[in-house]
Design goal:
Radius of gyration: 20 Å
Order of helices and strands: EHEEEEEEEEEHHEEEEEEEEEEEEEE
Number of strands: 24
CATH class: Mainly Beta
Number of helices: 3
CATH architecture: 7 Propeller
Largest sheet: 5 strands, antiparallel
Strand content: 25-35%
Shape: globular
Distance between the termini: 25 Å
CATH topology: Methylamine Dehydrogenase, Chain H
Length: about 375
């Protein structure tokens, strides 16, 4: 349910500001789960921190996350800053129009601990997607080229072993890295479950030696991966990719993973529930405007992702159709864990100036499924 649109401030001033206290050793032991490990904080996207915020009257330190200068308009998303239990702050930094590095800073004073350039590139979208690493069991998972990931051990230390893993087999990648780098991209935040299994969406643009198709990937704790084509998840083959920047979310018992599959040429989609071990379909539901009954708009400028409540209910934010019949706010749709019961929706809270950011040719005609 996270949607962040353009930051209307000069790019040179785009930074992340921190107000963090240094943990004592005893606190570090007691607060092993007190960090901020991923997009939306955790695998459920709860967005709830176990530690209270300090006063924001004082800025202890800051660092830039965008080194580009595009004239003042920042039509980009940025990776969530992460915090380890030992109080290292991990940030993804945009170093060019589509290039990134990862930095680790001391959470107390901002001192740079280490920096790692990546070969990751984000997919094209109306608002440029960010790069979303995730912390998991003392390691940092970093999106990389060709649909691969880089696993860095010891993220709190100045040096750490770096290993590349591919959901379709690292031997396949090493045999044809150029092909995979050109044709395959991770397109969502990576989500790690409590055991250390990883989930993400990916895009495939052309032929690969093993006939990959855009879909959903899972990498197990044994570094072995499985994947399913997005077009096979629902009964609508035109829904053929995971929504851009839609991070998978897991049920409270982690048996189910939720994400949104979309038809990018029509802007509609389904929220789907998959078995977290096998990626087989458990259920899906069309995402509809609760007022008009038309397909809700799934827009690639959004970073909307499912959120799972403590009771297992699932929430997802969409744009209204026709637009802007809900005053540009969109809808926060609400379902039970099986996606069989639609519950009372709410307003989503899109920014009020979103309308000026959506190309007029993209917006759907009322009652008609749009194409582009």
């Amino acid at each position: 349910m996270y949607a962040r649109h353009s930051l209307r401030i000069p790019a040179v001033f785009v930074s992340i500001v921190f107000s963090l206290a240094t943990f004592s050793v005893a606190q570090q032991v007691q607060q092993q789960k007190s960090g901020w490990s991923s997009y939306g904080h955790d695998e459920h996207h709860s967005g709830v921190s176990p530690r209270a915020a300090q006063s924001i009257k004082t800025i202890h330190w800051s660092t830039k996350v965008d080194l580009t200068d595009n004239g003042g308009f920042v039509g980009s998303h940025f990776g969530s800053p992460l915090a380890t239990p030992a109080n290292s702050t991990i940030v993804s930094v945009k170093t060019g129009s589509n290039s990134f590095r990862v930095e680790a800073h001391n959470g107390g004073d901002g001192t740079l601990i280490w920096s790692q350039n990546t070969d990751y590139t984000a997919p094209g979208a109306d608002f440029a997607p960010g790069m979303y690493p995730v912390l998991d069991h003392g390691r940092l998972i970093i999106p990389a080229a060709g649909g691969t990931i880089l696993v860095r051990k010891s993220p709190d230390q100045a040096s750490g072993q770096l290993t590349r893993v591919a959901f379709y087999g690292i031997a396949n990648y090493n045999a044809n890295p150029g092909v995979y780098n050109e044709q395959v991209q991770i397109s969502t935040p990576i989500t790690a479950d409590a055991a250390g299994n990883l989930y993400f969406g990916f895009l495939v643009y052309g032929p690969t030696p093993i006939n990959l198709q855009s879909g959903i990937a899972r990498i197990g704790t044994n570094k072995q991966g499985i994947w399913v084509a997005a077009s096979s998840v629902t009964n609508d083959g035109l829904l053929n990719q995971v929504a851009i920047s839609c991070g998978p979310a897991l049920s409270p018992d982690e048996s189910t993973v939720y994400l949104t599959i979309t038809n990018p040429n029509a802007g509609n989609g389904d929220l789907v529930a998959l078995d977290s071990a096998t990626l087989t379909t458990k259920g899906f539901v069309p995402l509809l405007d609760p007022s008009s009954g038309e397909d809700a708009i799934i827009y690639d400028a959004s970073s909307a992702s499912p959120t799972v409540g403590p009771d297992g209910d699932v929430y997802f934010g969409v744009l209204e159709n026709p637009f802007p019949d809900h005053n540009d706010r969109g809808w926060l749709l609400h379902f039970d864990a099986t996606l069989q019961q639609t519950k009372i929706p709410g307003s989503f809270g899109w920014e009020t100036r979103l309308r000026s950011s959506i190309p007029p040719w993209w917006l759907p005609t009322p009652g008609v499924r749009s194409t582009c």
